[in-house]
Write a structure and sequence with these properties.
Length: 232
Amino acid sequence: MLATEGEIFLAYADAIAATRPHRSASAFGPQAATATLRIGSVAPLIAGTLCGPLRRFHRRWPALEFAISTGATDYLPQAVAAGQLDCAIQPFSIAVEAVCAQLELRCELLWREPLVLIQSGYVSGMTSGLTSALAVVPGCAYHTMGVVASVLSSEVLETVDMPSYEVLLANVVSGRCHAVVPKSLLRAQRGLRGLRTQRIGDTAIVLISPHQRAAALESLRTILRRRVLSWH
């Protein structure tokens, strides 16, 4: 379950998305009352990290609405290139970098997100075949198989796709699998117990956008870097 702050924010984003169509913010400056900045990201970043910075952005640009959508890490750059999104905020990978180069998009580091291996605190060791599995959410590049296999002392690590991070966390707590998640995802959960955590590395979070960016997007970039970097 998301923290109250995350639920309020996602409800607000859904309400914006349901309003009448607006023109993209990429064509407007801060005085354009009808413009909308379309931002794509992955669910754990929206719930765990982006709520505060986006509220600050809205206070700085009150006449500019923004629409939030989620998608797989390989889809978001394509949506930016197709003009369906103004930018994407997502984990970096070599594949994402290659797609951005092919599509002539700008891929810029925002911050580095700690990655943690989470395991059930109620299950001791590999008590069943299920606990040797690594849960992942398709399209979210948050797992590094070699590192995780080394930490778990397992040569073969089966991956199990989960439809959402809520389902993933429930399966980890029950001892059915392990998972690698961004630390911010755990920050967004309230009252979640029964997990053992171990930091195993970091992943880079990048801003993907066209090479020519509007003033609003530059402002968002500055807010994200200043606000989020202060947390790590």
